[in-house]
Design a protein that fits this description.
This protein is of the alpha+beta class and about 850 residues long. About 55% of the residues lie in helices and about 10% in strands. It has 36 helices and 17 strands. The strands form four sheets. Strands 6-7-5-9-8 form a five-stranded antiparallel sheet. Strand 12, helix 24 and strand 13 form a beta-alpha-beta unit. The chain starts with a helix and ends with a helix.
Length: about 850
């Protein structure tokens, strides 16, 4: 009855039936359905055996004629519950959303009172999604439903006016309009909780004859301002200005029957088609948007990860969080000592075999020689004896650091000369002030990296740069390729490994600066507090940061660059050494750190000269240990009572630590001393033959030939050192840049050692002491001697023949010019005769060499060679 009354009321006030004349097609009459009647029939059939027939379960509110009236209250919930707005997020945490039905009913009665006598709330159905509720009131006898509804509306209007008396409430109500309103439900409300959230747009579906635009306006205008109406034959669209109006219209009009039940309206919310402006910008402006987005992503990544990486670099340098730093602490000792013990069991398990072999050798040596008269000094004293020769150099290195004047120090020496032990164990770690802030960079690990990811991982490991995402390199390459295909230009996201490594070192510079200035900040704060307590004339002058660092060298970290070289093992990593040189030069110029280079490659200094051309480097040159120190070291390491069992082994080995340790390992493995020495000399001879005599040069090495190497070998086999002036007497060498380049290349590969006096090449010695024995072994080998001595003589013949050809060319030119130059002709003729005589002698020697069957001590070969000068 309520629906019929509402329909009649609408028909009277808004003569829609007269506006839209009912003209129907017979087929349409057959298909016409009456919404309210159908719903009631289905509900009664479905509810016949159900216990719960409430509106929250069935979605339909039952109305018994004119005895009941249904009113829709909007904005019962003061905060919007729509998930389509930001308020929904806040509502989830608002306690007011958890109000009970009883509290909400009391709120409705409060704003609707006083009700007519006999009218009361029968049913309360909250619609939380729409922020409202359906309330069913009973209608007193003798009253009409519209009278009850009019009373409710008048009461709400009065309460709203009283509410707006408060200025603050008035302002908030005008802005948000959150005071509830009441509307008569004219249709059959469908109380659903589907995921159809309120919007300002309503879709009106017609069941039966459609309505015109004017009819729709008359029907929907009472609920709020309408922005637009889009009519249609089957579906119309109503666009309200406010979402609150759309909610009220949808809940009150849906299911309404018009035109004598010939037209039924079904209302739904039209979802908002939100536009993602970022996506739209990217799609429509790819050439601009993609590079900008990538730049923003890179910037955000830098802002997040760079402080983390800098913290890890600082931790690696200062070792602030390392157990070794706090190993003397009582609490740390409780955990650290068991951990260190277990680790030593795992890593040092091979010592048992090593000690067993050593003891067996010592026992065998003792049985063969007998008891020694006196025992050697203690083990620690013997080992330290090897380093006593370098004590002054270690002292000088510390002094340079504490002087703090351009501490750009180079420690150079041949391979196996103990440069690392000298710098770390005997210089830095012995001084408590210097051992606290050390960063070691092993260039060998970087130069041998075979792939870009390996290089980045090794660099990050050396610097403490963490986290590093090497997998992004491959991903960025694909992105860069895709962006280039879309926009025609590279995004710049894919960086070269040179740039990435440079960025790592750049961040390391920031970390070093932070470490170097930490003490200065403490000093500055302390001085500021002190000056604040003093009078104006008594204030103490505060040093600047640079002055403070100059006076306190212990504040600056020490950067040790180990195994620095001229070029990398992998040609694509050649940029590493110039990069490190330039980076370290920046640290020195900015007075941020002490830098120590450890190198065995004399050619690597050219990188340092390039970055600091006006700098005089402080250089520590380490040579091999003396014969007495080497002898004592072998005796101690092999646990010998005396050195008679290895007598004669010291001269070939010399003082090269690398060879001494190799000899000790061979002895401990069970080899006899003489056998071990012969094996080592044989390996050195094979290395010389393979690399130097067979001319296996690298691409950028200065050229040399086997005859030149053979010449140097024969000279050095007879003496420990030869002068440069003696060497250039040979026809194969000249006092020129080419000769100096060849000698420098041989020195780089450790065949020889060049000694200079005031920067001028003075003398030449063997690169490794054991090479001298290897030279002798090769020269005394008849087959090898025949090959390379013959090659040497052939080179000399080629040199003399070349001279003869030049002299003959000059003679020919003189005779053709018919100029009388008897003196010049006589000189050229004599020179030709001398060269020809040498060629004949060389050919004679070649013939003699082919007949040689033995070389006792190398006498024949050496005599024939010396006779050539």
């Amino acid at each position: 009855m309520l629906r019929q009354l509402a329909t009649a009321s609408v028909a009277l006030r808004y003569p829609i039936a007269r506006i839209a004349a009912p003209v129907f097609i017979p087929h349409a009459l057959k298909q016409l359905r009456y919404y309210s009647k159908d719903i009631e029939q289905i509900k009664h059939q479905a509810d016949s055996n159900e216990a719960d027939n409430s509106a929250s379960t069935t979605g339909v509110i039952d109305v018994e004629g004119q005895n009941e009236v249904v009113v829709y209250y909007d904005h019962i919930y003061p905060i919007s519950s729509s998930k389509s707005t930001f308020k929904q997020t806040l509502a989830l945490y608002a306690s007011i959303q958890n109000q009970s039905v009883k509290q909400l009913t009391e709120k409705v009665l409060d704003i609707s009172s006083p009700l007519p006598e006999g009218a009361e709330v029968i049913d309360f159905v909250p619609v939380k999604r729409d922020c409202g509720a359906f309330v069913k009131f009973s209608v007193p006898e003798g009253s009409a439903p519209k009278d009850v509804f009019r009373t409710i509306q008048d009461n709400i209007k009065l309460k709203k006016e009283l509410y707006d008396i408060n200025p603050i409430r008035y302002i908030f109500n005008r802005i948000w309009n959150h005071f509830p309103s009441a509307y008569a439900v004219k249709g059959t409300p469908w109380i659903e909780d589907l995921r159809r959230y309120p919007t300002t747009k309503l879709k009106v579906k017609y069941e039966g004859h459609p309505l015109t635009e004017e009819e729709l306006y008359v029907l929907f205008r009472r609920y709020g301002l309408i922005v637009d109406i889009i009519p249609g034959s089957d579906v119309a669209t109503i666009i309200f200005r406010h979402i609150r109006s759309a909610i009220a219209a949808k809940n009150c009009i849906t299911g309404i029957s018009l035109n004598g039940d010939k037209t039924v309206l079904h209302l739904q919310y039209i979802p908002v088609q939100r536009v993602n402006y970022i996506t739209d910008f990217v799609v429509n402006h790819q050439r601009i948007a993609i590079p900008v987005l990538l730049a923003l992503a890179a910037t955000i990544a830098v802002l997040i990860f760079d402080p983390i990486r800098q913290w890890f670099i600082e931790s690696k340098i200062t070792k602030k969080y390392s157990l070794d730093t706090y190993k003397n602490n009582r609490v740390v000792k409780f955990f650290y000592i068991p951990y260190k013990t277990v680790r030593s069991w795992i890593t040092d398990s091979y010592d048992y075999l090593d000690e067993t072999i050593t003891n067996q050798f010592a026992e065998r040596n003792h049985n063969s020689i007998g008891q020694s008269e006196t025992e050697s000094a203690s083990s620690s004293q013997n080992i330290n004896l090897l380093w006593n020769e370098r004590y002054e150099k270690s002292k000088q290195l510390k002094l340079w650091i504490y002087e703090n004047v351009n501490t750009f120090i180079i420690v150079k020496g041949p391979k196996g000369s103990g440069k690392e032990e000298f710098v770390f164990d005997h210089t830095l770690f012995e001084d408590e002030k210097l051992s606290g802030k050390i960063l070691t960079i092993d260039c060998d690990a970087l130069s041998k990296s075979r792939s870009d990811n390996t290089l980045l991982n090794n660099t990050s490991s050396q610097l403490g740069y963490f986290p590093v995402f090497t997998w992004t390199n491959s991903l960025s390459q694909f992105i860069d390729l895709g962006v280039q295909g879309l926009t025609g230009q590279k995004s710049g996201l894919s960086e070269s490994k040179e740039t990435q490594v440079k960025n790592m070192f750049s961040l390391t510079t920031q970390a070093i600066r932070s470490i170097a200035t930490q003490d200065y900040q403490k000093y500055y704060n302390a001085m500021m507090k002190k000056n604040s307590r003093l009078e104006q004339g008594e204030k103490i002058e505060i040093l600047r940061e640079e002055e403070y660092l100059q006076q306190h060298p212990e504040c600056k970290p020490i950067i040790v660059i180990n195994k620095f070289a001229r070029r990398a093992d992998q040609s694509n990593n050649d940029f590493i050494f110039p990069l490190i040189a330039d980076w370290s030069a920046g640290l020195i110029q900015n007075n941020l750190a002490h830098v120590i280079f450890i190198t065995s490659d004399v050619g690597s200094v050219q990188h340092l000269n390039a970055v600091l051309p006006n700098q005089v480097f402080k250089t520590v040159a380490l040579s091999d240990a003396s014969s007495s120190s080497a002898k004592q070291y072998l005796t101690d390491q092999l646990s010998l009572k005396d050195s008679r069992s290895i007598e004669g082994m010291f001269e070939p080995l010399g003082g090269r630590m690398l060879d001494l340790q190799a000899f000790i390992r061979r002895i401990r493995s069970g080899e006899e001393p003489r056998e071990a020495l012969d094996e080592m000399v044989g390996q050195a001879a094979e290395q010389i033959t393979t690399f130097f005599l067979n001319n296996q040069k690298l691409e950028d090495d200065s050229d040399w030939n086997s005859a030149q190497v053979w010449t140097i070998m024969k000279l050095l086999s007879k003496s420990d050192e030869i002068s440069y002036q003696e060497l250039i007497k040979s026809p194969l060498f000249k006092a020129s840049k080419e000769t100096n380049g060849t000698l420098s290349t041989l020195e780089k590969h450790d065949l020889i050692t060049l000694r200079r006096d005031k920067g001028i090449l003075h003398s030449i010695s063997t690169g490794r002491p054991i090479f001298k024995a290897a030279f002798r072994q090769l020269i005394n080998d008849i087959s090898i001697f025949k090959i390379y001595e013959t090659d040497y003589l052939n080179q000399l013949i080629s040199t003399e023949v070349s001279k003869i050809q030049k002299l003959e060319t000059e003679l020919t030119n003189i005779y053709s010019a018919r100029v009388k130059l008897e003196g010049r002709i006589s000189y050229l003729t004599s020179k030709i005769e001398a060269c020809n005589t040498k060629v004949i002698n060389y050919e004679t020697k070649i013939a003699e060499i082919s007949k040689i069957t033995s070389l006792p001590g190398g006498q024949e070969g050496s005599k024939g060679f010396l006779g050539l000068f």
